[in-house]
Amino acid sequence: MANVYAYIRVSSRDQNEARQIIALKEFAVPRQNIFIDKQSGKDFERPAYKRMVKRMKRDDLLYIKSIDRLGRNYEEIQNQWRILTKEKGIDICVIDMPLLDSRRGKDLVGTFLSDIVLQVLSFVAENERINIRQRQAEGIAAAKEKGVKFGRPALPYPDNFQKIYCDWRNKKITLHQAAEACGMPVGTFYGKAKRFEKSD
Questions:
Q1: Rg of the chain in Å (alpha carbons)
Q2: Contact criterion met (CB below 8 Å) for 32 and 23
Q3: Is residue 98 within 8 Å of 65, Cβ to Cβ?
Q4: Which of 11, 113, 115, 146 has the smallest count of CB within 10 Å of its CB?
Q5: Do 59 and 2 contact (CB within 8 A), yes or no?
Q6: Which residues lie below 8 Å from residue 181, measured CB to CB, with a gap of 6+?
Q7: What is the C-alpha separation between 154 and 88, in angstroms, rounded?
Q8: Which among 92, 86, 109, 16 is positioned nearest to 49, based on CA atoms?
Q9: What angle do CA 102, 64, 70 make, to 5 degrees?
Q10: Residue 61, Cβ density class (10 Å: 0-12 exposed, 13-18 middle, ≥19 buried)
Q11: What's the pLDDT tens digit per position in 103-148?
Q12: Would you please indicate which residues are annotated as catalytic (active-site) residues?
């Protein structure tokens, strides 16, 4: 007997998959057959997706909300669609695009129309990924220009840093001893010493 599955993807851990789950509710997909990945759509190296494909068999049905939830790489989307529908014999229904429902129009014209729509939407999905990356890069560059610091803030100097630094500079102790006295790795002590010299 054929099973019904759903695949949900969000790009990062802090994004919410609720919108996709709500869209899938009317299709009565069993909870154990809903697979969720929280990572980029640039390729198909995704754990939940791989588990789902391994489990699916001929005549099963897969629901996805939109083609960009399947992926954001033009060629990879085309390849996966072919593997699932042609090689594994699985039907796919893209909720936001009724033309992309492999159960309909299995004749030559239907297949031709589906292929065209799939190609266009795959192109749009990859193009959007490129645009997102470009916007992120531009945003980071603009923030840096305004003096926004990225990464973890630097830890403050320990209370004994100035004395230890002077002892090290006056060759009373070694670099290793200085770092140990400040409770930090050698590289961290050396970096802080250089910054201390510049600010002095």
A1: 27
A2: no
A3: no
A4: 146
A5: yes
A6: 160, 164, 173
A7: 53
A8: 92
A9: 95
A10: buried
A11: 876 655 455 555 666 666 565 666 666 666 677 766 777 777 777 7
A12: 11
In terms of DSSP H, where are the helices of 67-107? Answer: 67-70, 74-82
Is 196 exposed, middle or buried (CB count within 10 Å of its CB: 0-12, 13-18, 19+)? middle
pLDDT one-digit tens code per residue, 70-116: 887 878 888 888 888 888 988 999 898 887 888 876 655 455 555 66
Nearest-angstrom CA–CA distance, 176 and 116: 66
Helix (H) or strand (E) holding 132: helix 108-145
Using left for φ > 0, alpha for ψ between -120 and 50, and beta otherwise, residue 197 falls in alpha
Q: How far apart are CA 111 and CA 137, in angstroms?
A: 39
Q: Cβ(21)–Cβ(8) under 8 Å? A: yes
In order of 135, 139, 141, 199, the CA distances from 145 in angstroms are 15, 10, 6, 22
Closest to 3 (Cα-Cα) out of 68, 52, 49: 52
Asked if residue 196 lies in contact with residue 165, where contact means CB atoms within 8 angstroms, the answer is: yes
Sheet of 4-10, strand order? 34-38, 4-10, 61-64, 91-94
Q: Identify the three-state secondary structure at position 26.
A: helix
How many CA atoms does the CB half-sphere of 111 hold within 13 Å? 7
